[in-house]
Write a structure and sequence with these properties.
about 325 residues; alpha/beta; seven-stranded parallel beta sheet
Length: about 325
């Protein structure tokens, strides 16, 4: 639990920061975007998953968040473009290229533009803002850094880049450790630094993304954990686990392989140095010293679910700010 927080700013001047990865984080980010004006929310996204493939610069989590807020995401899977085709990938396959990473034709168009703009010297932040704006997203979506950080897994099969583990190997190899290469030297993106330094910051939300693959790359950046621990704004996490099972992805598998109890409580402990509030499913009983825990419906299947949880996050932030 952090030291005492300062009095909150007025409602009109409040600003909020959401830290997230892909599918799960994008759901809460969408809810927050429906509730908050565009000038009151910054969404900072993990880029440890980014990689080069078929000559293209790909930012999977940024794209998932962008597609979700733009209303373009494939609804059944929560990532990729809706109504996409795969003609280009079929050609790649016919010519003997690698097709283990599914790229739809519309998706490739975005990656082509990103690669071109990066080659022209634009930062990832500038490219992300330009793409989001062109797709009709009003809220700020920003990478955690403009520098290169890559999540690499220590596995029983040796070191594996994240996408090779997650997509090509279907998360099958046993994990013995996780590295965030480049994080120790990477600079915070201007958006992340600005949000954490904003005197009107009124809440930081750790979205229900995988703690080790999606949130930890952000926390591995220099001073981020310290800034979260020292900010007067309440820092609230939403549990990515319900009843001992992951809402999405390999969270529980990874926790077991790293000898961590697969529970909502264990995730909170992972964030304990900066955490003020924790939202868990009613199925999970979590008691933490100096951190307020509230039960709520955190499984987001519909837009109404996302908006309801976003409103609860904002109300919880106000409640924590008023308890001093």
């Amino acid at each position: 639990m952090k030291s005492a927080m300062l009095a909150p700013p007025s409602r009109s001047s409040k600003h909020y920061l959401a830290l997230c990865g892909g599918v799960g984080g994008a759901k809460l980010a969408l809810g927050l975007a429906h509730v908050l004006p565009s000038d009151q929310l910054t969404i900072v996204v993990n880029t440890g998953d980014d990689f080069e493939h078929l000559g293209l610069s790909i930012s999977p989590d940024i794209d998932t968040v962008t597609y979700t807020l733009a209303g373009l995401v494939q609804p059944d899977q929560g990532w990729g473009r809706s109504d996409d085709s795969f003609t280009a990938l079929d050609t790649v396959k016919r010519l003997g290229g690698e097709t283990w990473f599914q790229l739809g034709d519309k998706d490739i168009g975005l990656h082509l533009m990103r690669s071109m703009m990066l080659d022209q010297g634009l930062s990832l932040s500038a490219v992300t803002a330009r793409i989001a704006g062109r797709l009709g997203v009003a809220h700020e979506i920003a990478p955690m850094t403009d520098d290169i950080v890559r999540t690499v897994l220590d596995t029983a099969n040796g070191l594996m880049p994240f996408q090779h583990y997650f997509v090509k190997a279907h998360c099958a190899p046993v994990i013995t450790g996780i590295k965030y290469l480049g994080a120790e030297k990477a600079r915070l993106s201007a958006a992340l630094k600005r949000a954490l330094s904003n005197p009107n910051l009124s809440g930081v939300f750790i979205c229900p993304s995988n703690p080790y693959l999606s949130i930890d790359p952000i926390l591995a950046l220099a001073d981020v954990r310290t800034m979260l621990a020292s900010t007067p704004a309440p820092v609230i996490a939403v549990a990515p686990i319900v009843g001992g099972g992951a809402i999405k992805g390999p969270t529980v598998k990874i926790m077991r392989e790293l000898a961590i109890e697969p529970s909502a409580a264990a995730v909170a402990t992972h964030y304990i140095d900066f955490l003020d509030g924790y939202i868990v499913d009613a199925a999970d009983r979590v008691v933490l010293s100096d951190v307020q825990v509230i039960p709520f419906e955190i499984v987001m299947n519909t837009l109404a679910d996302k908006v309801t949880l976003a409103n609860r996050c904002l109300a919880f932030s106000d409640e924590l700010a008023g308890q001093r």
